[in-house]
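Cross-check.
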Amino acid sequence: MSVQPAAPTALTADHALGQRVLREHVASVYSTYSASTLTHMAFVVVFGSIIYSQLKDPSLLFWLAGLLMADVYVFFTPRWTPSRPVRESAYWARKISRVVTLVSMVTAVVPWLIVPHNNLPMTSLLMAVIVGSCARAAQSLWPLKPALFGYTMPMSLGMITALAWQGDGLHLFLAAAGAAYLLLTLHAGIGQHKLLTESLMLRFENEALAARLGEQIAATERASEEKTRFLGTASHDLRQPLHAIALFGAALENELRNRPEGRNAERLMRAVNALGASLDTMLDVSRLDAGVITPAQQPVQLDALFLPLNHTFAARAEQKELQLRVRASGLWVHSDPQLLHRMLSNLMDNALKYTMRGGVTVTARERGESVWIEVRDTGIGIAPEQSGRIFEEFYQINNPGRDRSRGLGIGLSIVQRLSRLLGHPVQMHSRPGRGTHFRVVVPVASPPERPPAGLLPASRSGAAAEERTAVALPGRVLLLDDEFEIREAMMGLLRSHSIDAHAVANEAAAEAALRQAAREGRPFDLLMCDYRLADGVDGLDAGLRLSQVDGAAMPLLLITGETAPDRLQRVRESQVPVLFKPVVADQLLQAMSEVAVAR
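Predicted model, tokenized:
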């Protein structure tokens, strides 16, 4: 049977830990080095003088001189300092042990000079001094066992043997008492040394664990940042071609309206809008994290909020043969109608996804100063071990294959972010196989004298949008975008709506176009600019500069596919109107109309 050697890494770690512990022990012993040495020298002089005055033995002078010389050597010999490297700790531990052993051996001679005089008072004084010296030194030498043994044993054994050598009962009793005290002192010292060592090892191990935890946290944060950058870049790169497709498709749909080929264009736009909605869901997470969404809280009539929700999800519930009950309540709450609508929409969407039989019920009940808005389903339910993860991004229950029909797994994550933003706590109760119950707690409100404007419908037809925006659309538009396909698509869309559009690829060309338009007396009514331009040029800065060419103060509309929270925050602080790619044609025309009217 062979014994496998320990892993080199483990041995290295244990050695390093032992070195750190030893260094702390050495530092503790040397912390009182100078004071202890000077105190010992003064005490030797006083004690030696007293003994010599009583016994008049010349040999005591030689002992006194020898002990003082040992103290002088100890004081002036090189000593450990905090600047010494850790690898030298063993050397300094051995040196201090040798030094205190030398002092103790010189001191061990004195009992043989005093005890034979049969002077009981001087013998008692000697025992008191040696016992006290051992007790004081033992406490300071606990960290280093060799030093503890080296200091206490020589002088104690010198005293014990000198007493026992006398042979009478009294001196034997004193020798036995001295021996017992020595054993107790060493036993206590060993115990204290063990406690100190274990305490230091635990401290350093905790520090190492904390350092590793810090490294792991830093690595996790870096991974999260890298994931955010990756998703931001991927989202932007996906939005660019999708934006072009949406613009080309909108222009094609407009051209083929009322023709048989128009059905394919409508199907194309439905697919594009579905993909755009998925990207918008991810964008919502970034916008919420960036703090670019500011709630506009006001009295909200829940029945007016429930009605469009019922219309939105009724067809889907009917398709799955589920019952959808959205019950009127007559209650008013204090919230942001758009954001509360989004919260409830996500909860209802989630409920319908995971309900195969039965149905979904949406109710509102007044409870004191609050209103409980509850979304109940009879779906698959949520196991207790999964209840803490359902609000995580991209987490879905029983969807390992990432079925697209179940969405992206971001809906409840957005609900949680909106809950924090609005201050509306969300509570969840679920029983596996029986269904799930979500509750949104919203402050109750009194009906205002003049009801606020209701929610905008979720979608509008192209004809209605045209009717709303045709009068206010700008006549001339300048587009700054570095991608050829997007310029071509945007030009086709705008010209199909009788807008005189001109597109350029960089800031210099845009400035030249603006100056030429001013000379011709046909200035542009609107500047549309992409946020991320070629060669790292910031489209927001470029657009702000161009909007002030010749002091014209031309309206600016920013279009971006960015999802990075810091950049979204910067756009918000600029207060420049912004659209997020892919832009739906109706949404683009509406924004252009609003910016033109605001001028």
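DSSP finds 18 helices and twelve strands in the chain. Confidence is low (pLDDT under 50) at residues 399-408, 453-471. Passed to J.P. for a second look.
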